[in-house]
Structure formats: structure tokens, C-alpha cells
Design brief:
single chain; Arc Repressor Mutant, subunit A; 2 domains
Length: 218
């Protein structure tokens, strides 16, 4: 029972710290100090240590000897191209598999998230991730889903720190509408195409972000 409670606390700490990083509340290069996290999360040091080890495996943080946990820096521009190529292929396959299993309840959750995103809230990125994860989880391919989530998280930090403009959110919302329609119609090719277009839109935002940050051609 005690091990179960500790695991649940570790998972809770993992999810909270992960989301703080993805929302830009913990910036790249900043230290995650155990004492501060204990106070902030009201969770014990043991479960937080386990959460940081798990976050290290996602690439969102790096556990460095004698320094502790450091929020990771964004991928290089070259690496991002490869990440997005992999994402388009993998996520399109997961979505196609999900089409066979997706339930009316799942569709309702997608529509609720879609409605919330139409208000272009400040946490649009977070809702966007949840939207895609509902679809991919329906594939019943958990190992591939974990890979897809890790690839997504590796670039989400950058997207979240430099907030998505309203015009980007509106564009993503239109693409999400197409994704939902393709799922409802059981249009496999349409779904794969709309997923690819949506992922490519994320790459365009990153290109714009890098152009602003480093002021060199992408």
C-alpha cells in the first residue's frame, strides 16, 4: 500500500513539474531545487526525486552530477526538422489506428477541448496536447504513444515559452475541426492528411520563433 501511495505521488509530481515546464513556468537552464519543489508541490522529496528521474528520460530536464536537475534547452534547428519528420509519420499512423477504436465518449472529449480552444485561452498549447493524446491513446499502442508524446514534449517547451499568437491558435482550431470531422466520417486518408497539416503548422511556428530569437535564417 505504501509503495502504491509513493508511486501515485511520484506520478502526480511528474505531471505537475512536466506541465510547469511546458507552460513556460520553469525556463530552460533553470535549476529545479528539491526543497523548493517540496514547498511548491506539497509532496515529499522521495516522490519528487523519482519524478525528476522520469522527466530526465523525456529530455525535458537533465540530472547533472553536483548541479541537480536542470530544465533542458530546446532542440537545435537541425534536430527539430528530424523530430517533425518522425512526428508526421508516427502520429499519422497512430491516428489511423485510433480510428478503429475511438468511442463516442472520446469524440465528445475532443469536441469539448475544441470548443475550449476556440476561445484562444492562454493554455491553448496544453489543451492542444490533450486533444492529440486522446486520439493517440485510442490506438491501443502504448509504447508508440509514449514515443509520440516524448517527441511532442521535446518541442512543446519552446512553443509554450514563446506564446502562440492568436492567429496561430485560430489556424490550429480550423485544423482540429478537420481532424474531428475525419474521425467522425471514418476517413482514414483525410485524417492522416489533416494530422500532417496540423503538425506542419507547429513547425512553421517554431521557424518563426527561431527567426525572432536568433535572427538567422532557419
Amino acid at each position: 500500500m505504501e509503495n502504491t501511495k509513493s508511486s501515485m505521488k511520484s506520478l502526480k509530481a511528474y505531471e505537475i513539474i512536466r506541465d510547469m515546464i511546458l507552460r513556460g513556468e520553469k525556463l530552460p537552464g533553470s535549476r529545479l531545487i528539491l526543497y523548493d519543489l517540496e514547498e511548491e508541490l506539497n509532496i515529499g522529496r522521495g516522490p519528487i526525486r523519482e519524478a525528476l528521474m522520469r522527466l530526465d528520460r523525456t529530455g525535458l530536464i537533465k540530472n547533472i552530477p553536483y548541479k541537480g536537475a536542470i530544465v533542458g534547452t530546446p532542440p537545435t534547428q537541425k534536430e527539430i526538422f528530424h523530430i517533425f519528420d518522425l512526428r508526421i509519420d508516427l502520429e499519422a499512423k497512430l491516428a489511423a489506428e485510433a480510428m478503429e477504436n475511438i468511442t463516442d465518449s472520446d469524440i465528445l472529449k475532443l469536441e469539448e477541448l475544441h470548443a475550449a480552444m476556440k476561445e484562444t485561452p492562454t493554455n491553448h498549447h496544453h489543451l492542444d496536447s490533450n486533444f492529440h493524446f486522446i486520439i493517440y491513446d485510442a490506438s491501443n499502442l502504448p509504447h508508440l504513444c509514449n514515443i509520440a508524446k516524448t517527441l511532442r514534449w521535446s518541442v512543446e517547451g519552446l512553443l509554450n515559452i514563446y506564446r502562440r499568437d492568436k492567429e496561430h491558435s485560430v489556424k490550429f482550431n480550423r485544423e482540429h475541426d478537420q481532424i474531428i470531422e475525419s474521425l467522425k466520417k471514418q476517413d482514414r486518408e483525410g485524417l492522416k492528411s489533416s494530422i500532417a497539416i496540423n503538425i506542419e503548422s507547429g513547425l512553421e511556428i517554431i521557424k518563426e520563433t527561431y527567426a525572432t530569437i536568433v535572427r538567422v535564417p532557419f
